[in-house]
Each structure stands twice: as C-alpha cells, then as structure tokens.
Amino acid sequence: MKMNKTLLSAAVAVGLLSTSTVTLAAGFQLAEYSATGLGRAYAGEAAMADGADAQWRNPAMLTYLEGTQVSVGAIYVDPNIDIDGTSTPGGTSTPSSSSDFAHSAVIPNFYVSHKYNEKFALGFAAGTNYGMETDLGKDFGGANFGNEASVTSMELNLNAAYQVIESVSIGGGIRYVMAEGSFGAVSAITIPNAINQGDTLKYMEGDDTAWGWQIGTAWQINENNRLGFTYKSEVDLTLEGHAEGMGFGLASGHKKSGSMDLALPATAEIASFHQLTEKVAVHASINWTDWSSFEKLVADFPGEQSDTIKMENWEDNYRFAIGTTYQMTPKLALRSGIAYDTSAVSEKNRTATIPETDRTWLSIGAGYQWSEQLTLDAGFTYILAKDAKMHEEREGMTITDPANFGGEFQGEVTGSIWLVGIQANYRF
Fold first, then answer.
1. pTM
2. Which of 24, 81, 212, 426 is buried most, with the most CB atoms less than 10 Å from its CB?
C-alpha cells in the first residue's frame, strides 16, 4: 500500500499474502514459487513436471501431469543484510550504517491441475513473482535518499495446455496481479526553522491491479531428454494513493493524491531435463529479465506537472542454474543445485533501499512419496550476496534535492539469505 522513489526502484522480496524480505532474484523479482524447485536451485524448471506447481514456470508442462493434482507449500526467508558507509552532512564525513534491515518472510503458494483428456489440461495457480520490504530506520545517515521501501504483490493464474503432437506441447495463461507499494525518505539532519532530523522529505503509497499473460512450450526430444521454453509478459501497474512531505511541496501533516507507474518486467526461461541413468537426472536453466525497461520513476499528480523521482537506468539480468536429482530409493529422491544471479544495477545506480547485487545459490532438497497419492518435499538454500558498493550523490541544484538534507552517501552492502521450504503434492 505504500510506494515511490526507490520503493519501485527497489521493490524486493515479500510474501504472497504479506510479510517481507529482501531481493532473492534480481531487482525486486522473486524466484520462490515452490519448495520442490528450491531444493535444486530452480534449475530446469521450465522442463520439469513434479506436480501442479510446474505450471507456474511453464504452463505447457500441465500435459505431463496425470489426473487431478494439488500442490501447496510455503518458503521461509531469513535475510541478513547490512550496510556500512559514510554520509557527508555539511561536507563532513560521518560514519553511517544499518544492520539486518531486510525483514524475514513466509512466501506461500497454491496450485491445482486437471488432465481433461489425453491432450488437454487446465490449471490454477496462486503465488507471487515480485515483492520487497526494507527499513533502514530514521537514524540511518543516508535516510535523505530513502529509509524505507516496499512492494507486495499477489498473482492468480488460469492456465491451459495442449499436446500438439506426441513430442510437443504448448500452453498459456492469463495472469491477474494485485500489488501495493510504498517509499519513504526523511531528513538526516536538522535545519533550524526548516526541518528536523527524521521529518518526512518524501513518502508515497499506492496500489493497483493489472492483467498479464504467459506462454510456454515443451519438446520431448526422446524418452530421456526434454527442452522447455516460457515467456511472461510485462505487467503495467499504476499505483494510486497519496503523497506526503516537503519534497512534494507539502507542509507537515498534509497529503495529496498521486500515482506512480510501475512495470513488472517481462521474463523468459529456456530449460532442459536429461535422465542420465535410471537414478540420476541433470537439469539446467537460463533466465532473462527485461530490467532495462526500468529507466526512471515518475510521480504523477492530478492537474500538476509530473515529478521525476529518480533516474534508474537498470540493465537486463540473467540467471544460470544447474541441478541434479538422485532417486535414492523408489520412495526417496534427493535434489541439489547451484545458481548464479547477475545484478540488474551498476554501482553508479545502486541504492541503499535496494541493495541489489550478484548472488550465488547453493541448494539441497528431498522428496518422499508418503503414499501412492501423497508426496512431501523440502528444500534448503543458502544465498551468498556479493559485496557491493554504492554512491548516492546530489541529483540536481533544486532546493528539494536529497543531498541538501544530509549530504551524499557512500557505502557497501554485505549479506546472505537462508531459505527453507516445505510442500505437499496430492494426486487424486
């Protein structure tokens, strides 16, 4: 429900129905759609069909699921992110830091699939692809550039798939996205007769709903090898709400209606699955996200000129993952995976409210067939974020420039993230 500047420049991980965390994929993108995939670092997802959750990454995989299936689960996210640096109020260098400023979260999911006949299948999915929440506190030395940011989203899908020929399936779906977001920045210093430390410079919040779509295909090359490809459209949101703060020309306690456009970027994935032996399978993925479409943030107010909040200039991001599945016994499957996420932002454009950087995933997991109908899965991942520097500097010569309320900020972000997920898959 909140929104603005780095809010949207930031948006970073939060849960489907709420709570929050820090970015787990690039930008404010979430990869955590199932505990099953978590155990293999989400490698090969567009070519995998473990359960009804497969439709989230590739709707074409619905044709590989027999009967009616239900998957339900959740992933707990525990980020440990710190930032350390200096600010320059009055031209004097002052130490400034914030510890553990990204919140933990639980990210739930729910999926249903139904094989209507030999060639046609339907599915329903509920989850999230984007979200975030960070809170650096009002005492943070760089709070004049932003001290809090959040984006929460929930997505519902209706999907269908058709087996065109024995070796090729296609699928598609309609996506309904509900989102809310906020951004806040406060003065890092006291200016006599003007503003006190901690007073609001800019705060904005809003929400919206929008539609999107996705398509996918799967090619069964032979009995042991399969390729999958999927594409999700961009989703355009206009977060409508209100603004506060002297940065928007408002006196303390006053609000005005406003909105900000936020585009959830298009994504694509190509994946492969290879059954090497009766017990060992290898799977891999390459993912792309169109973050270069995220150039700037603009606040719009009825009957007034738009306010450019921040130039972003993000870059397209890629993710590379490889994983294995080992069928240890007829009932027990062991999974592992490693992945590398490239950052969607350079040092020049990185912000404290969005500590976006390269990430390495190390994952393990297991699946146990409890009965003929019920399978239980668990996944565990450790994400190591690469240390990354940032420099938030003067943006212009206007009186409301953030640097006038605490100077420039220069720092480095460090951290790691723990993920633990569980999931139940039931076949009727």
1. 0.88
2. 24
CA distance 320 to 25: 11
Kindly report, residue by residue over 257-284, the tens digit of the pLDDT: 999 888 889 999 999 999 999 999 999 9
What is d(CA 144, CA 141) in angstroms, rounded to the nearest whole number?
A: 8
End-to-end CA distance of the chain: 39
Number of folded domains in the chain?
A: 1
Look up the domain containing 292 and give its range. Answer: 5-427
**Helix and strand numbers, DSSP H then E, in the chain:** 2, 20
pLDDT for position 222: 96
Among the listed residues 312, 352, 299, the one whose alpha carbon sits nearest the alpha carbon of residue 135: 352
What's residue 152's pLDDT? 87
Residues 159 and 124: beta-carbon distance below 8 Å: yes
Nearest to 331 by CA among 279, 376, 368, 364: 368
- What is the percentage of the chain residues whose pLDDT exceeds 90? 57
Q: Report pLDDT for 24.
A: 53
79 or 163: whose pLDDT is higher? Answer: 163
The upper half-sphere exposure of residue 420, i.e. CA atoms within 13 Å in the direction of its Cβ, equals 3
Q: What is the mean pLDDT of the chain?
A: 88
CA-to-CA separations, 191 to 50, 90, 251, 334, 404, in angstroms, rounded: 60, 11, 15, 60, 10
Q: Which domain CATH number covers 77?
A: 2.40.160.60
pLDDT of residue 25: 58
Pairing of strands 235-244, 68-87: unpaired
How far apart, in Å, are the Cα atoms of 417 and each of 37, 127, 299, 372? 17, 20, 32, 35
Which of 417, 420, 422, 421 minimizes the C-alpha distance to 25?
417
- Give the mean model confidence (pLDDT) for residues 167-193: 93
**322-344 burial code (b ≥16 CB/10 A, e <16):** bbbbebeeeeebbbbbbbebbbb
DSSP string, 272-295: EEEE-SSSEEEEEEEEEE-GGG--
